[in-house]
Write a structure and sequence with these properties.
2 domains, 5-stranded mixed β-sheet
Length: about 220
């Protein structure tokens, strides 16, 4: 999943340093397309980041859309819902795969503390149903499992009371803030932002039974 900020895309009015970036935005777009081409079949989707949004807002050109089109990758700028199906014998049924849902969006706004950054992905989980949520932008890695209870339509009659008894099923969702690839320095240091860990979180879907979704860091 490519979740935005693939290119620096600095403009004269940007926070970034326009004279330190490697090549024009057009060259960055073409170089990124060339870099991703060998693994294009493994990319599930693509969104836009605030860096590429500089170009889109200034001149109306979406270079992330260009990259996705060249690679043949699904694209939605604002965010994208992923349906991932694999495995067999889901619910003990032959030929029925396990299905996982994910939601990815680049992220927004500013935040200083790790908690303030993490809460933004938690907000998205309140209005979109998924098994895992990916949000970038803040350069701080975080992964947190959250469990909520869903009503189960299956019922039975209690022989002692005569009441129809139901149950709830625990559903686990993983809230993930993704990493950065830039070392500390530049406008981040000057702005008082802390150094970030460059480790990459990996979402692991078991393919055995839900809600076995875990994150390796």
């Amino acid at each position: 999943m490519c979740n935005g900020d693939l290119c620096e895309s600095s403009l004269r009015t940007s926070k970034g340093q326009i004279y330190h970036q490697v090549g024009s935005p057009e060259k960055q777009r073409d170089d990124m397309t060339e870099m991703l081409d060998p693994i294009k079949d493994k990319i599930l989707g693509m969104t836009i980041g605030n860096h590429e949004l500089r170009i889109k807002n200034e001149v109306g050109i979406d270079i992330c859309k260009d990259i996705a089109k060249a690679l043949g990758v699904p694209y939605r700028a604002e965010g994208i819902i992923l349906k991932i199906s694999f495995g067999n014998y889901n619910n003990f049924t032959k030929g029925k795969p396990y299905v996982y849902w994910g939601y990815a969006s680049h992220g927004y706004g500013g935040a200083r503390t790790a908690a303030a950054k993490a809460v933004k992905v938690e907000r998205s989980s309140a209005f979109i149903h998924a098994d895992f949520y990916l949000m970038s932008h803040d350069h701080v890695v975080n992964a947190a499992p959250v469990v909520y209870l869903m009503p189960d339509p299956r019922t039975h009659v209690d022989p002692r009371s005569g009441f129809t008894i139901g149950k709830v099923t625990a559903h686990r969702k993983m809230l993930i803030k993704t990493n950065a690839y830039l070392k500390w320095g530049g406008y981040a240091e000057m702005g008082g932002f802390p150094p970030t860990d460059l480790v990459c979180p990996i979402v692991k879907l078991s393919g055995v039974a839900k809600p076995h979704v875990s994150v390796l860091i």
